[in-house]
Amino acid sequence: MKVLVLPLRSEAGGAVISHRDITQRKAAERALRERDARISLAAESANLALWTIDLERHESWMSDQGRAIFGLAPNEPLTRRLFFERVHPEDREEVYNAIEEARATSESFEIEYRLLRPDGETRWLNARGRYLRNASEEVAELICVAIDVTAQMKANLELRLQQLEMARMSRVALMGELTASLAHELNQPLTAIASNAAAGRRFLRQGFIGTRHA
Amino acid sequence: MMPGESLTSQAVLRTPGIDVGANYLDVCRSAARAGDHSVVTEVLAGIEGVLSGKETEFQNEYPCVHRLPGPLV
Predict the structure, then answer these.
(1) Structural domain spans, chain B
(2) Is the entire prediction scored with pTM above 0.80?
(3) Domain residue extents for chain A
(4) What pLDDT, in 10s, does the model give residues A32-47?
(5) Do B57 and A1 touch (CB under 8 A)?
(6) A46, A105, A140, B55: which could form a disulfide with B49 (CB 3.0–4.6 Å)?
(7) Is this prediction's ipTM beyond 0.95?
(8) Which fold has domain A34-148?
């Protein structure tokens, strides 16, 4: 029940007290909470971030896992502005365009983007979302689900760096081989030239040959 | 609805004289005295706040448990 007390605008004063049966509303709220709890449990089991923005009731909800990923306090209200503040500045326009396009076309969207959390940490998300429409075909709710792929992205980056390092090492090894080959190819004739020159000098010194033959 | 149904314990519901036309504030005060009814106390304070002009409005939500006088079967 909901009790409402309002002052009676009269000289005698007084108040109007009304009691309204809100059983249905409470039941709907409880059902919503239970739905959110079930979805949250499923989201946490899958390590997913899940959030909804009800455009008609101006309410939003985000799973606990989502709040942890986005760096939101447990009771911090999720607003559109706050959401875009968390998106990395370099990805913000792309995310905005994807969401707005989905709104206009009623199609779902999928996008990979970065979060820049208040603690300075960057997280990579792979997100999907779609708008739901009410009975009048008006856009009523936005539902999004995202998975934190930061570890995967870091692993990919690490792999890429290792590939680059291996390519560099390969180039260095090739240069080494080339250098050794060049040294060998040059040393052989130079040694022969030096040896012949030494022999010639010895012959000259001992008078075996004249300078004309040298 | 009867005030006693929503705000008070079974003891108040059984109190003779509480019917249509009963003094609502007296019923609330009686319920508050009857035991630890934080909702009743809150509502009573809210009503008195509006009556005295200290508050311009008061609202509250509370669970309503109907206690039937006897078993259903």
Answers:
(1) 3-52
(2) no
(3) 34-148
(4) 888 878 877 777 777 7
(5) no
(6) B55
(7) no
(8) Beta-Lactamase (3.30.450)
